[in-house]
Amino acid sequence: MYFEPGNLEGKETGAILDRLIQYVTKSDEEIAEEGREKKKTTTELKVFLAENRGLEQGDIEERIEDLLFTDGLTKPQTEFFDSHNFEEYILNEEISSVEITTPQYDRTDQFFFYYPDNYLRVFTIERRKWTERTVERLIKYLPELDRLLLSSEDLEEISEDLQKTDVSGFTAKYQPYYREQSVSIQFHGSEPGDLEKVEEEFNARPSRLELSRRNSPVDAVKTSMDVGGYFSVPRIREDSQELGHETLMQLGEEYQSRDRENFDVEHKPRKIPQRQGFSVEGHTTLELVEQVDDLEPDVAPSHEELVQKLEEEVVDGKRRYEYSVWEDGNYMVFDKDRDEPFEITIEDRNIVLHAKPATNSVTLRDFCDIIRQEFNTTYRLEKTSEKVGVL
After folding, report:
1. Where are the alpha helices (DSSP H) in the chain?
2. How many Å apart are CA 13 and CA 87, to the nearest integer?
3. Where are the chain's structural domains?
4. Model pTM greater than 0.85?
5. What domain of life does the native source organism fall in (predicted)?
């Protein structure tokens, strides 16, 4: 379905989102028919979330043109920008319609860019097959944007915070660096306690949760949350559009709030000159904590094995990083993609990241995402950020 931008211009953001909500709203008869046919009749309402470090509303076309005339773009970035056309229509002071055209397939996909403070939310009803080729790459390739990242604990806590909500399914993964074994478990129509059983039996942590929100007493809103800065609303029951709108906005706020809690570098180390030397004021650390405590002796990794694996597969294995070792298990790392340094310390089976004066949230988030996707899914994230002075 295509929404003519001219028909939406000047309307309030809530009214525009209600048009998208109406697309996934279904009557009891339609829901029953989908159940019998075992397939959805419409695609989902999808939301992609990113940190926004300076992209202004209305500037997408000009920003892409500027990028094409600068050095340093990768081949995938250049090919993507060259092979698509981009048009942004401002609808009101906080939301735009962005159309991405792929001439090769004679196809135009439509997205709604919502610009809350320092974040971007992208709403769309396009199929995931096409969002992966278009808007998700746009978010990846624009330097000002970075997809949000939540932890498994964040997903579970958000589901608990949403009133009248049940976990109806999930995907849980176990992929540690210290075992050849990896596990991916999917539940649909799960019952209370299933997720806890999977965590206990397989040490697998949720990367996606399916939720059902009730509008007493029936299930009214179906939604799915993913740790990778994405959630969707597959279905809203007729007469529950208000709850659907509330869910859409509340989940967006929750994602942003959790992201700030996890990755904002509130206090950076600063050297303060003193009469007898200097003091260091402020620090922010992220600790990736191994949660699997009952590892068998022949499986449990040693400190040395963690150091070796992290160096081979991430710090040295990724071309984006340069590093130096100042003692065993301690690295000064430079992220070439972001032009920012940070420090890594290995403590037992945990990885501790220390922000430097030039370190920002995007560098820490990107590193944690690499760890989650390619190194170890069993870590819990803990952050400490304090304004303190050390003589």
Report:
1. 5-8, 13-23, 28-37, 60-68, 75-82, 128-131, 135-141, 152-161, 194-202, 241-263, 303-310, 361-370
2. 19
3. 5-147, 152-227, 270-390
4. yes
5. Archaea
